[in-house]
Specification:
Blueprint (H helix, E strand, L loop, with lengths): L3 E4 L10 E4 L1 E9 L3 H14 L4 E9 L1 H9 L5 E2 L12 H7 L8 E5 L1 H10 L6 E5 L11 H8 L4 E4 L2 H9 L7 E3 L19 E5 L8 H10 L5 E5 L5 H10 L6 E5 L5 H4 L4 E3 L9 H8 L4 E4 L4 H4 L6 E3 L4 H13 L6 H8 L4 H21 L1
Parallel strand pairs: 3-4, 3-6, 4-5, 6-7, 7-8, 8-9, 10-11, 10-13, 11-12, 13-14, 14-15
Antiparallel strand pairs: 1-2
Helix pairs in contact: 1-14, 3-4, 4-5, 7-8, 7-12, 10-13
Amino acid sequence: MHAAFTRCRQPDNPRGLLWVDVLITRVLAKLEPGGAQLSLLRVARALAARGHDTRLLVGFATPEGIELARAHGIEPEVMPGGRNVQWRCDPAFADWLRPRLLDADLVHAHMFGAWWAAARVMPAETPLFASEHNDYAWPEAEHWSEMADAVGRVDRFYAHSPGARAGVLKAGMGEDRIVVGVSPVDGLDAVARPGLPRPRIVYTGRLTEDKGPDVLVEAIGLMAAPPQVLMLGAGVLEPQLRARIDALALRDVIELLGWQEDPGTFVAGSAIQVCPSRDEAFSQAAVLAMGLGVPVVGTRVDGFPVTLAKGRGLIVEAGDPAALATALQDLLDGRRRTDVIGARAWAQQYALVRVTSRYEDDYLDRVVPLAAA
């Protein structure tokens, strides 16, 4: 075991006699620039400042994902020739993990293919935590029976959306092991960078189909006099989006700014943050905007109605450019409003220091009894 122990009572140690520095082994199905990946990397960096190091084992990674991990102080170990195992049961990934999990203090696996593989091969005495952000929209074959085999091995499951929770309940996981997953949101104190257009609509997210940036472009094309639109992010839809922006004569309205390390400085002071997702468990983009006092328009998918409940944002149907255009214009013209004050207060629960403390407490509650024994 890698944990380091000091047998003395410390005033800031609520657990009493045992202070533990833990090596956390994280298993990730897919490493790319994205909300789930940013979440775990931010927590890992914050935990490192508290003495808990992280080892990152990855099934598949993009070059951008590897650079993102390095920027957070972690050198990932990626399975050679790996493929995206987010929604797959890959025995080769499990076999690759097996020797690398033998000396883990604890394992936290992210995305189904990762926690399925870890559950299959890791030592029985090692605690296994699992996280799932999305509903189980299997792109190929369904894996409910394989999930049923794995859920009994998971000590604590972080469900970041209603769909993620419903899926593991369906597979037989006990409710006592399921908790609401919380992702940290960085930049809640951001200040708008100078020189940005006002008013402006912002989009922050991957340029992929699930995030719906194409829906936003179509919606802007339906508006009579839209304000400037800044789209932050990168992804496979970028060429298609540029072509559509040109076809709609929106080049002077919509600007694609690529991946930005500090999106909060673009979001702060904006008129609207739009999140036109077709699939969304928990939107860091939405919560960041809420924390900065920016009205949010989201879609009626999975966890979004919870995030934007009680007037914290506006909800439209996914994949409906006309409905989105109407909601954007209504906000701009003042016909509809969101509860900006309530949204800002609600978003504070996702501050990095609070989320980091929660995970640290969960990890040590499992590791300390094992170490003491």
